[in-house]
Known about the structure:
Layout: E1 2-7, H1 12-16, E2 28-31, H2 37-46, E3 51-53, E4 71-72, E5 77-80, E6 83-88, E7 91-92, E8 100-101, H3 103-120, E9 125-128, H4 151-160, E10 164-167, E11 182-185, E12 188-192, E13 195-200
Parallel strand pairs: 1-2, 2-3, 3-4, 6-9, 7-8, 9-10, 10-12
Antiparallel strand pairs: 1-13, 5-6, 11-12
Helix pairs in contact: 3-4
Amino acid sequence: MKLLAVSDLESAYIWEHFDPEVFRGVDLIASCGDLKASYLSFLVTMIPAPLFYIHGNHDARYRIKPPEGCVCVEDRIVEYRGLRIGGLGGCKGQSPNGLQFTEEKMSKRIRKLESAIKRSNGIDVFITHAPPYGYGSEAAGDCDDFHKGFECFASFDVTHMPKYHLFGHRHLSGSPVNREACELFGATTYINSTGYRIVNL
């Protein structure tokens, strides 16, 4: 199964110079947040595949006008072609907009999601905006608190062992060809979806 993962940066290559051959065979699309609703709606118009999304920390506007033709998997589990997909949006912080969370508040959201995971007998694809704590070299102090990941996400991956954990928020430099975005952590493959990624699941 082929996945298109997107996050944070609208790609001019996709939006302005869309080449259907590049995205032929994409079976599903996942958005990890901080993208215009119109961009997501454009993707599902041009690519014959469902799009599952969560909220980034800049996506309060989704509450007024959500992306058309897309499926929100925030705080729940959905199944598509045998894959159990769920997610938790937002990032670290204490802004009153409702899209920033302390470690304690995100842990509480995880506990609620675990009830849905139990009913679904597991989770295969975990979509978040913020990364799990420890991704990259953040522990060495090269990243501000706002962009650090959640420790509870790292614990979640150890406990529930999703096959894939997709996220954004930590922008990477370079093109999709030369950036390292897929890393194996235990049983879970981490995929930084900044810009766009095409991944064979």
